[in-house]
Amino acid sequence: MDTRLLKYFVAVAEHKNITHAAKSLHIAQPALSVAIRKLETELELELFRRHERKISLTHEGETLLSHAKLILQQLDDASLAMKELRGLEKGEVRFGVPSIMGTYYFPEVLMAFKNRYPKLKLTMVEAGAQSIQKMLLDGEIDLGITQVRDLPDELDSDHLLRSQMMAVVSTDHEFANKKSLSYSEFFSQELVMFKQGYFHRARLDAICKQENLTANFSFETNLLAVILKIVKRDFAISALLELATENEPDIVSIPFSEPIFLDISIAWRKNGYLSKADRTFLEFVKNNH
């Protein structure tokens, strides 16, 4: 099977449009249409349902897509491995990290790494844990920070740290002098939280459901600075990891009566290829947390 045809097939499947896929591949639309027909003829299967302006995958197409992505990913890994054997090191680490970890935990680590390995490039992508896991599986990033719980079987990980989740209120809030908060007290307030997809939001959603409580999300944003400003101005309260709250002025951190701890790990594709740069960064993070 021609891997070029597989590449074209994946592009069309992702764009769901021949014209857009052709532009992304920098080839003519008729040539792409011919290539897809050739692949279908070779396989003796219909891979797409053609609509007037849009196309969608058939069941056979869905089955091929998962295999095609894996094949192309493994070819990229093999190419990288061969380059390194010739001494052409990748020299770049693509790294996914949630907002809180990126703001409070990793700046010092990243600067120390860059100081020791000035020729290596670090590309940091900010995203929630679920998005990071998907990007790892799709080969869009090499390493990512995520929660240990519910890690897909296709990913491997090393534990980095454990951090307690704290309720966060303004210094003027009625809860400011409390030593601890029950879940019912917390969820009775107007809340500002990260959107779904972030690991501590997922944990709070699970607790809310488990305790049969109703959450009042007045604000949802993935911008940490906005969350902190809303809390400091007493428009709502939130819950953040202790590593984020311990150095923030004008807020009060309160533990929950039933403490919530999150175990955070650095993950990578189990069957993926980690370059020398990736392995160097992984070892550096593990030894400097």
Look at the structure and give the mean pLDDT: 88
Q: Helical residue percent?
A: 40-55%
pLDDT < 50 stretches:
none
The count of strands amounts to 10
Task: Give the overall shape, derived from the CA principal axes.
Answer: globular
State the order of secondary-structure elements, H for helix, E for strand. HHHEEHEHEHEEHEHEHEHEH
Portion in beta strands: 15-25%
Major beta sheet, specifics?
A: 6 strands, mixed
Counted by DSSP, the helix tally is 11
Q: How are the strands of the biggest sheet laid out side by side?
A: 4-3-5-10-6-9
Alpha carbon gyration radius: 23 Å
List the helices and strands and how they pair.
Blueprint: H1 3-15, H2 18-25, H3 29-43, E1 48-50, E2 55-57, H4 59-85, E3 92-97, H5 99-116, E4 121-126, H6 129-137, E5 143-147, E6 155-170, H7 183-187, E7 190-193, H8 199-210, E8 216-220, H9 224-232, E9 238-241, H10 242-245, E10 251-269, H11 276-287
Parallel strand pairs: 3-4, 3-5, 7-8
Antiparallel strand pairs: 1-2, 5-10, 6-9, 6-10
